[in-house]
Amino acid sequence: MKTLVIHPDDRSTDFLKPIYSGLSNTTVLTENVSPYALKKAISEHDQIIMMGHGSPYGLFNVSSIGHSFFTIGKEHVKLLQDKKNIFIWCNADQFVKQHNLPGLFTGMFISEVAEADYCRVIAEQTQVDESNDLFAELMGKYLVKYTTDYEAIYFAIETEYGRLAAVNAVAKYNWDRWYINTSVTSDLAL
User: Fold this and answer.
1) How far apart (Å, rounded) are the C-alpha atoms in residues 25 and 40?
2) CB of 189 within 8 A of CB of 98?
3) Is residue 188 part of a domain?
């Protein structure tokens, strides 16, 4: 199993590094990757983990990975159709659902106090940090333990992160927006 991690270099998303720090046979792309090299890397790996800031249209390009406003966008859909995918960015659910892609993914994901304010969740930095740190720790732990058994990963995180969600409003908001898509059809909306 070869894993590609696409994590555009951005201090505000450094908390996500534990997700992939314990994985073996992993290529990590953080900056200065040509569009050709990015597509080649995706095609050569079995599992693709994409994370950072984003929108319903894709993962934002904040460190020159690819050539457009998005590091991962609609031009990558065909490459991702038959991969084991993990999409962790704000509103990745809309991107995944629009293109009917398989994998684990987040909806709007509060990772900063400003995002909590925007989502009308009353939170202090300590709550945001606690939520961020536990989510990344659990994701990394269960990726190592279950590798590509995404249902096991999904339910383990849902259970353990759910305990924090019971007492932390940020984690509750994020927990309510944690998804899995295992029923991909061949009619992809491109």
Assistant:
1) 17
2) yes
3) no
Query: Domain range holding 109?
Result: 3-181
Please state the domain count of the chain. Answer: 1
**Span between the terminal Cα atoms of the chain, in Å:** 27
- Per-residue model confidence as pLDDT tens for the chain (190 residues): 999 999 999 999 999 999 999 999 999 999 999 999 999 999 999 999 999 999 999 999 999 998 789 999 999 999 999 999 999 999 999 999 999 999 999 999 999 999 999 999 999 999 999 999 999 999 999 999 999 899 999 999 999 999 999 999 999 999 999 999 987 654 433 3
Q: Is residue 72 part of a domain?
A: yes
Tokens read off for 101: 């892609």
CA–CA dist 132, 150 (Å, integer): 20
Instruction: Look at residues 151, 3, 184, 5 and name the one whose alpha carbon lies nearest to residue 82.
Output: 184
Q: What does pTM read for this prediction?
A: 0.93
CATH value at residue 15 = 3.40.50
DSSP string over 58-97: EEE-SS-BSSSSEEE-GGGHHHHTTSEEEEESTTHHHHHH
Residue 134 within a domain:
yes
Quick check: is 56 in a domain? yes
